[in-house]
Design goal:
By secondary structure, this protein is an alpha/beta fold. It has 10 helices and 8 strands. It has 2 domains: 137 residues, HAD superfamily/HAD-like (Rossmann fold, 3-Layer(aba) Sandwich), CATH 3.40.50; 65 residues, DNA polymerase, domain 1. Strand 7, helix 9 and strand 8 form a beta-alpha-beta unit.
């Protein structure tokens, strides 16, 4: 029998990257010579792809490519300084890694996710890591990974509506990481809700046993 598969979002689910998002976008706006934005606006860039985030903070369409390039450079320079795992995330992964195939489906870039895996010492923990692609949605990325792995049982865990809908549109049970960056309306669309990392671990262990 195949192991079950657990698909995780990264930012806001396993990684507490909000401060990174704020600082990298503030630095990017400064380097682009664009007006600064308050923290509450910059926070909205955590979750969407770079292309989706640019108009949120007032980046003109014609400067999109420049924004994406500079923001990635700023993010990579800041990962080791400000990024961190949510408390309990490392333990959760350690407990689950021999019970299920662990995968990441993220809107982060390949370079960013690779740097995070190196920084947190998580190389080899995840069976597959899927990053953003400008021509594919998270739903499509998850569908591609599902087609590759052909799991007998799988679940999607994430903190934003895009994660939950990606799981649901691929026929998966969905779990809202309600300690992340979403809100109650987003979490309500999931099949299950975990208000803490400990609760998420308990729920996923139950899933693995079933």
């Amino acid at each position: 029998m195949k192991k079950p598969v657990i698909f995780f979002d990264w930012d806001g689910t396993l990684c507490d990257s909000m401060q990174l998002c704020i600082e990298e976008n503030r630095s990017t706006l400064r380097l682009l010579g664009l007006p600064d934005q308050p923290d509450e606006v910059l926070r909205r860039c955590n979750g969407p792809t770079f292309e989706e985030a640019a108009p949120i903070i007032g980046v003109p369409e014609e400067r999109m490519e420049e924004y994406c390039r500079i923001r990635l450079s700023c993010a990579l320079a800041l990962v080791e300084k400000v990024n961190r795992l949510f408390p309990g995330a490392r333990e959760l992964l350690s407990v689950l890694k021999n019970k299920a195939e662990l995968c990441i489906v993220s809107n982060g870039t390949q370079a960013y996710l690779t740097r995070c895996m190196q920084h947190f010492g998580l190389e080899g923990v995840f069976h597959r890591i899927v990053w953003s692609h400008p021509e594919r949605t998270k739903t499509q990325n998850l569908a591609g990974l599902m087609a590759e792995l052909q799991p007998e049982r799988a679940v999607m865990v994430g903190d934003r509506i895009g994660d939950i809908r990606a799981g649901r549109e691929n026929g998966l049970t969905t779990i809202a990481a309600a300690f992340g960056y979403g809100n109650d309306a987003e979490y309500a669309e999931a099949d299950l809700r975990a208000d803490s990392m400990a609760q998420l671990q308990e729920t996923l262990l139950h899933f693995c046993r079933d």
